[in-house]
């Protein structure tokens, strides 16, 4: 048995078991769905008619496999000489880890996979081979191994093969076994031309994936594909479409914008969605709205745009956190993203300051911590946050941290109390009201919580 098994840690085994359970659950869902769709689509006359489909021919010849995978057109001409000869299934075998309940271990088990000559060549961009196979009777809509050739050519961004298949009758809305159409597989910038072709030949721009209910716009938004998003919206893609978790494309874009180097393109995607009618207040998974996601990713400009379009700074998710809570928890994770600007913007749009238990998350970010503390009319007594500040940061900003300790549970200056009164009066309109008062720039900045490096 040692030749067929490997030693795993208990943690790895638990992970593999969970993965196995998830795969089994997905298989059951697909089986139920296929049965339902079959009953729904077939008419009674077709349902009772004896099957007329011919027996599949399987190709296991390694030489033929090699010719297909390398795009050897001359050799393929010699192999597929007659009409109908290309309508075969290519069978390959690989070993996968599978759970063996009899012996209680994971073993390497041979598993057969099926594809077709047309899928192989279309997925590799061999347009001449695709043309030959279609001329020899290969069905552009055949689903070998659970998907069609158009899925492979679109996913692999081979526009010439995609066009050829479409002109030969390939269905641009054909679903694979996972409930996805070819347009759902256009997930990289390179697939833009394929997406255009699919739409030109009748792909439904609002077609949801059967299982997840995501639309092509969800997918393009989550990937930050600006060209795709612009194309879909120009063809009336619905920016308010909901997936199975209740998320809109705007939710998807804001949630995926978690890398500062890609902030720009996700900002532009969100901007297009908002201009097309996307709702910045629609909650998604676990009650997270777009502003929660933008704040949790410390994307200041994106959060600012959502607020400008009417997002509420005080809406809470299913855990009871508002966007400011989400921002405070990631202050130390995104120091290069100026988290204090995000905290300041949320407070100036009316976000309610959190309790002292949240201070530990932002205490190591002096600017954000100062802005937060200045939103209180007094600083409660307590030093639990001190342990969250690394020694080197404390030494660098000793003056600030000592001023916080000295001001704890002490009366704040009259000037600060006046600021708190004005901020309470204008509430969520501070960002608009204070600049319109005609006050000196320094005083306006003070009212808008500009940090000064110390607490008075």
From TrEMBL:
InterPro entries: Ankyrin_rpt, Ankyrin_rpt-contain_sf, SOCS_box, SOCS_box-like_dom_sf. CDD domains: SOCS_ASB4_ASB18 (cd03723). One of its GO terms (cellular component) is cytoplasm. It holds the Pfam family SOCS_box. One of its GO terms (biological process) is intracellular signal transduction. Keywords: ANK repeat, Repeat. This is Ankyrin repeat and SOCS box 16. It comes from Pelobates cultripes (Western spadefoot toad).
